[in-house]
Write a structure and sequence with these properties.
By secondary structure, the protein is α+β, with helices and mostly antiparallel strands. The chain has three helices and ten strands. It has a single domain, classed as Lipocalin.
Length: 163
């Protein structure tokens, strides 16, 4: 009976290594992260900092699979009229959702967003990640550029662990 139990346990461990790896990755990611940089690189050359040289941002990843993110430009001022309010909206990004991990990929199913065009059942984002100590790097992979039509771009977000 003991041999049968040991064989079953070994089979479970052998057949589900990805699950164990995903759990290890999730443990590395859980916490609060402070944004240190956002760079967008274009496939035809050139790099921009879409939120400026000193972006502000937080990323919160919970152990039960929730993701909440907010990013803003550092130099935002108070809005006094409709045009200034619109400018504030254009200088930020915020959304939340449930995430899953598969290898070096983190997939987020967005349930709320600062811009409702990004919310809904079909809004699924996959990002690539790496963690080294207290540093997290998220990459979008090459996607269609929203600021340079006809080009592709990859955004690279660098985060520092807060807790």
């Amino acid at each position: 009976m003991l041999r049968l139990f040991a064989l079953a346990l070994a089979a479970c461990c052998y057949l589900q290594p990805e699950n164990a790896l995903a759990q290890d990755a999730a443990k590395q990611l859980v916490g609060t992260w402070k944004l240190t940089s956002v760079l967008t690189k274009f496939d035809r050359g050139g790099t921009v900092e879409p939120f400026g040289p000193n972006p502000k941002g937080r990323l919160v990843l919970t152990s039960d699979g929730h993701w909440i993110i907010i990013i803003t430009r550092a130099n935002r001022g108070p809005a006094k009229n409709s045009d200034e309010k619109a400018a504030l909206l254009d200088s930020m990004l915020a959304y939340s959702g449930k995430y899953t991990i598969d290898g070096d990929r983190i997939t987020n199913r967005i349930d709320m967003s600062w811009n409702e065009i990004f919310t809904g059942a079909l809004q699924i984002q996959t990002r690539f990640f790496s963690v080294a100590g207290d540093k997290l790097v998220l990459r979008t992979g090459l996607i269609a550029s929203s600021i340079r039509p006809g080009q592709k771009a990859e955004s690279i977000l660098t985060w520092e662990r807060e807790c």
